[in-house]
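F.,

This is the one I mentioned.
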């Protein structure tokens, strides 16, 4: 008996009420009642009339035991009529599964055929596998490739026996042969769903970079639309880097978690309306349905103009993991529910001009991690001699980075004290990495948490438009408040020098931890400089990476 592979084909289409006649069902005609779906399956000429298979039709991905209709077929063709007494559920997804009875389980994620949504109360879904003529084997899949001579997992199948395009599937185990590519005009059905989360830094000094992003966001959308299959099925959301810091004594940083990773969806800037439908907290564009009016670029710009009133101790990692519900603090915020789709790819895009400073959460707001003094303390830590140094952003560098000047000296925190207390001194470091064992969230742990969102970690893209990790230079300035704790009349306070500056005077500091996070995702990690006159090029690069993931 020839073995048959399984084909799974899911599609959403709309039907309305009326009565027409469908041709081609069993070689004749069949009356189309209100809410009727005909599923016609034709197999290739190489299939023996002795081959047995089952066909299951289900709605909205219900489990097989809840399938709407099943039938056992034999030979090369079978048709199922599925009736919906209350009318066809508009917009629902229909899944057709063909399974060889001798192995009893679905195999593969590809199918051939077309779906027709008639203007009356019924529809027809035709799945065709077969046809005469030479063809090529299926492309490699997670467990190997369908194809004549496909052996074991991983290797691509050789030429199939029929058709112009092989059906992607799973190779045989051991020395078993995979079924050859077969049939007609078949195509591999690619995933078209992608959930895109933009984290936008809303601390002071980000206005010009936000304007740059919104000004060039059309390039991002155009690049997505120019994909072979057009604009993907999008979910698009925006969050802030503001998660608060300390006890509320730091300007712009509250003690209650800032924006708490909640999707930002109200109109900002010059917009009087976001364009989102009432109740919508993120953009959804799944043709032909979308949850907004106007164009996609305008809606995004209206909700992405977050301003620059957010906390200056940016918590990019904490905001992302909170927004997606993987920070260990329970499910994602209520406003964020429904954003992540199980089968969709996930793209996270950070637009920020400073490195991450996400402090490890503690049981009590008054305690630091592992019993240490809280990183953002401003009560007893006010000068150079105090444990944490002056209450300024350099704490994120001193306690978040490990740097070295050469290949011999062990990596250590960048120096707080100016050589000889010289306010004009500069100290450069050849390389810096994240200090994952002190005050801040671990880069590796954060990456692993994001990867758990998908059964296949390759479905996650992390892209950062930020400051280059190098050059890394510490400079000093006059103290913001009187400070003679170092023994000098005036103790210089440390400042990390900008690693880049754009022509419009926007700038960024070394994003050591953020760069390291992106690198945890290999080829799915992208880092681009935020210091450019136009963010069109990096946005295009990110969009093209997303399209490449969705293209079979």
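My design for it:
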């Amino acid at each position: 008996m020839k073995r048959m592979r399984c084909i799974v084909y899911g599609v959403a289409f709309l039907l309305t009420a009326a009565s027409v006649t469908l041709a081609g069902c069993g070689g004749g005609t069949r009356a189309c009642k209100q809410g009727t779906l005909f599923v016609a399956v034709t197999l290739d000429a190489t299939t023996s009339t002795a081959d047995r298979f089952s066909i299951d039709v289900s709605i909205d991905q219900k489990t097989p035991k809840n399938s709407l209709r099943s039938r056992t077929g034999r030979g090369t063709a079978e048709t199922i009529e599925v009736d919906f007494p209350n009318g066809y559920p508009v917009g629902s997804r229909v899944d057709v599964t063909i399974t060889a009875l001798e192995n009893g389980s679905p195999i593969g994620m590809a199918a051939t055929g077309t779906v027709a949504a008639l203007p009356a109360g019924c529809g027809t879904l035709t799945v065709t596998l077969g046809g005469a003529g030479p063809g090529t084997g299926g492309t490699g899949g997670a467990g190997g490739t369908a194809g004549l001579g496909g052996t074991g997992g991983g290797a691509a199948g050789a030429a199939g026996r029929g058709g112009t395009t092989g059906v992607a599937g799973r190779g045989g185990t051991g020395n078993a042969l995979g079924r050859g590519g077969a049939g007609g005009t078949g195509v591999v059905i690619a995933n078209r769903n992608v959930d895109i989360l933009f984290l936008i830094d809303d601390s002071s000094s980000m206005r010009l970079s936000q304007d740059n992003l919104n000004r060039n966001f059309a390039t991002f959308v155009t690049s997505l639309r120019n994909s072979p299959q057009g604009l993907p099925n999008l979910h698009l959301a925006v969050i802030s880097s503001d998660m608060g810091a300390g006890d509320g004594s730091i300007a712009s940083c509250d003690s209650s978690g800032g924006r708490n990773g909640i999707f930002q969806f109200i109109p900002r800037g010059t917009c009087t309306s976001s364009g989102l439908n009432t109740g919508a907290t993120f953009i959804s564009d799944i043709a032909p349905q979308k949850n907004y009016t106007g164009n996609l670029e305008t809606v995004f710009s209206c909700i992405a103009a977050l301003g620059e009133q957010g906390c200056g101790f940016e918590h990019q990692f904490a905001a992302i993991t909170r927004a997606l519900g993987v920070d260990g603090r329970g499910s994602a915020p209520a406003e964020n529910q429904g954003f992540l789709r199980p089968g969709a790819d996930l793209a996270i895009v950070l637009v920020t001009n400073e490195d991450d400073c996400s402090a490890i959460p503690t049981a009590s707001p008054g305690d630091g991690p592992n019993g240490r003094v809280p990183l953002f303390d401003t009560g007893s830590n006010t000068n150079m001699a105090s444990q944490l140094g002056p209450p300024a952003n350099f704490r994120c560098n001193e306690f978040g980075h490990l740097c070295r000047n050469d290949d011999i000296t062990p990596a250590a925190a960048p120096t707080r004290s100016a050589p000889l207390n010289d306010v004009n001194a500069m100290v450069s470091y050849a390389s810096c990495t994240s200090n994952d064992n002190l005050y801040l969230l671990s880069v590796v742990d954060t990456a692993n948490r994001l990867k758990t969102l998908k059964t296949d970690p390759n479905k996650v893209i992390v892209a950062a438009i930020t400051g280059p990790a190098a050059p890394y230079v510490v400079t000093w300035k006059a103290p913001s408040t009187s400070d003679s704790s170092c023994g000098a009349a005036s103790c210089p306070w440390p400042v990390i020098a900008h690693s880049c500056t754009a022509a419009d005077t926007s700038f960024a500091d070394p994003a050591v931890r953020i760069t390291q996070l992106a690198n945890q995702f290999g080829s799915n990690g992208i880092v681009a400089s935020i210091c450019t006159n136009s963010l069109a090029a990096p946005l295009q690069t990110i969009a093209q990476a997303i399209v490449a993931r969705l293209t079979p």
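The mean pLDDT is 77.

Talk soon.
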